[in-house]
Specification:
This protein is of the alpha+beta class. The protein folds into three domains: 110 residues, Ribosomal Protein S8, Chain: A, domain 1 (2-Layer Sandwich), CATH 3.30.1370; 101 residues, Orthogonal Bundle (Arc Repressor Mutant, subunit A); 209 residues, Bira Bifunctional Protein, Domain 2 (BirA Bifunctional Protein, domain 2, 2-Layer Sandwich), CATH 3.30.930. Helices cover 36% and strands 21% of the residues. The chain has 19 helices and 15 strands. The strands form four sheets. Strands 7-10-11-15-14-13-12 form a seven-stranded mixed β-sheet, sandwiched between helices. A three-stranded antiparallel β-sheet has the order 1-6-2. A hairpin with a 2-residue loop joins strand 12 and strand 13. Helix 2 packs across helix 3. The longest helix is centred in the middle third of the chain and has 21 residues. The radius of gyration is 41 Å and the shape is elongated. The structure holds phenylalanine (PHE). Phenylalanine binds next to strand 14 and strand 15.
Length: 525
């Protein structure tokens, strides 16, 4: 049996003698090798660019498994005839026993009767079977042998139909190749290298070596195991906490956001430093966003310029659509919260219309949303700052929610993380009032450290969205990288992203241990 290499060699030798294309099936039958092996050789010669091969599809008649048996042992009728003695007869039951295959015995008996090879005598009471023809020719076996030898053309159409009817032959579609020499054909098969080695570089042999092409179509070996990215693992812990608290995840699948949703809906003044090139990535292509709901935009403009319906004075400055349309990489996930809250507001307005404008008749179902995803800021990169990071954000909207609710909710959240000692310190956000930084007592450092930012969203943000007067919206946010870095003992944030991340790193300490560590240093999250 020729090895794969020998088969390749035989194939190129054969090709070197002719300009005509060589068919792989013809080659296989001539060389008496399995066609699949020839196909393998064709593919490997093709990958070495020695040959060109066109795939063909041809139909041919092939033997069924039963027919293979017949070629080897004789047809059923022949077996029945052979089982009978040359002289005299035997009982039918005995014949069946001798043949030892009920199906062969039954079918063979009736065919042999039709062929007049055998006779049956029932006169004695017991059916006795005997030979009628002294000599027979097993035509079925001969025909099948012809099919096996690829000499189907020697069969008449009637014979083919009969064999098909008996399910002894069937038409199969066979894929083969017509093989030709390529422009770089040679009979000298040098196996191409799969990898470049240090030796090849040192000796310079890589210059003359043939390298195997990459197979970009390969499906590869299915992975038996894998690793989640550490950030994803910690994200999953936070997600679970939100789910336990009944929060619903927001869709965060747009890194590109308009300034409108990122800043204007959040009552960030158009002159705010966050809208500066130094702090935010602006897109050049497309520089401007698509549609902004016109009515909503008009309300935002009014609110920014003079407070509109909100009772505020606004910024007393001209608000420009051109500024709002500028596309940015979102700088915080509060843009996502704004989109969701606007939806809730619009839903409320719809219900209000169906209730004939009577707000008392509309039930406002409180909502709790969260998101954990990437945001982008134009920072100077260093060991603790990247231009992209993940934010964790929770928002809740309901009638008559207060600062007390916000503090209670944040406490619940951090208790789930294992942080019980919390303090709040007033701060400033353009979109929340009051706003609070959250601090936690760090027993190791013996001091209060900042762990996040929060607030009650301003009416200037909430009212234009269409939410009713007595609905307040609470929110808080923190970063994902800091707790992850602490958890995995990473002190350079650049080891947490890109190709450098060590996916094998593991930890399996309980969540609460993570979050005592969360407060390890006082840098803001
Ligand atoms: N968006 C704030 C930040 O980027 C976090 C925050 C969310 C604050 C919700 C208040 C309310 O830090």
């Amino acid at each position: 049996m020729a090895s794969a290499d020998e088969l390749c060699q035989q194939l190129v030798q054969k090709l070197s003698l002719t300009e005509a294309p060589l068919n792989s099936i013809a080659f296989a039958s001539e060389a008496s090798v399995d066609h699949q092996k020839v196909v393998g050789a064709v593919k490997s010669l093709q990958s070495m660019n020695l040959i060109e091969a066109d795939q063909l599809e041809s139909k041919r008649l092939a033997l069924t498994a039963e027919a293979e048996q017949i070629v080897a042992n004789g047809s059923h009728e022949f077996l029945v005839w052979s089982a009978l003695p040359a002289e005299g007869g035997i009982e039918q039951a005995e014949l069946t026993k001798k043949i030892n295959n009920a199906n062969v015995a039954k079918l063979g008996f009736s065919k042999a009767m039709t062929n007049k090879w055998i006779a049956i005598d029932k006169s004695s009471g017991k059916p006795i079977v005997s030979r009628k023809a002294a000599d027979v020719v097993d035509e079925v076996q001969q025909l099948l042998q012809l099919v096996k030898n690829n000499a189907v053309d020697k069969l008449s159409e009637q014979q083919k139909t009969d064999l098909k009817k008996r399910k002894l032959i069937s038409e199969i579609t066979e894929k083969s190749y017509n093989v030709r020499k390529s422009a770089t054909f040679t009979t000298n098969i040098e196996k191409p290298e799969t990898d470049i080695t240090p030796e090849m570089i040192a000796k310079g042999t890589w210059k003359t070596k043939q390298f195997k092409d990459y197979n970009f179509d390969a499906k590869g070996i299915p992975p038996e195991c894998g690793h989640l990215h550490p950030l994803l693992k910690v994200r999953e812990q936070f997600r679970q906490i939100f789910f336990e608290l009944g929060f619903v995840e927001m869709p965060t699948n747009n890194y590109v956001e308009s300034s409108f949703w990122c800043f204007d809906t959040l009552f960030v003044p158009q002159k705010h430093p966050a809208r500066d090139l130094q702090d935010t990535f602006f897109l050049s292509e497309p520089a401007e966003c698509g549609d902004i709901p016109a009515e909503y935009m008009a309300r935002i403009k009014e609110t920014h310029e003079n407070g509109g319906q909100t009772g505020s004075q606004g910024y007393q400055m001209e608000w420009k659509t051109s500024e709002a349309k500028k596309n940015v990489l979102r700088t915080h996930t509060t843009a996502v919260s704004a989109r969701m809250l606007y939806k809730v507001g619009q839903e409320y307005q719809k219900q209000l219309v169906s209730a004939g404008g009577d707000g008392g008749k509309v039930e406002f179902k409180p909502v709790k949303f969260f998101s954990i995803d990437k945001v982008f800021r134009n920072e100077t990169l260093d060991a603790t700052h990247l231009a992209e990071f993940c934010q964790i954000e929770g928002v809740a909207a309901g009638r008559n929610l207060s600062l007390g609710h916000l503090m209670g909710m944040i406490k619940e959240f951090f208790v789930k993380l294992g942080i019980a000692d919390l303090r709040f310190k007033p701060t400033y956000n353009p979109y929340t009032e009051p706003s609070m930084e959250m601090y936690s007592w760090h027993p190791g450092l013996k001091k209060w450290v900042e762990i996040g930012n929060s607030g009650v969203f301003r009416p200037e943000m909430i009212r234009p969205m269409g939410l009713p007067e007595d609905v307040n919206v609470l929110g808080w946010g923190l970063g994902l990288e800091r707790p992850t870095m602490i958890k995995y003992g990473i002190d350079n944030i650049r080891d947490l992203v890109g190709h450098k991340v060590d996916l094998q790193m593991v930890y399996d300490s309980p969540v609460c241990v993570l979050h005592n560590d969360l407060t390890k240093d006082s840098a803001s999250l």
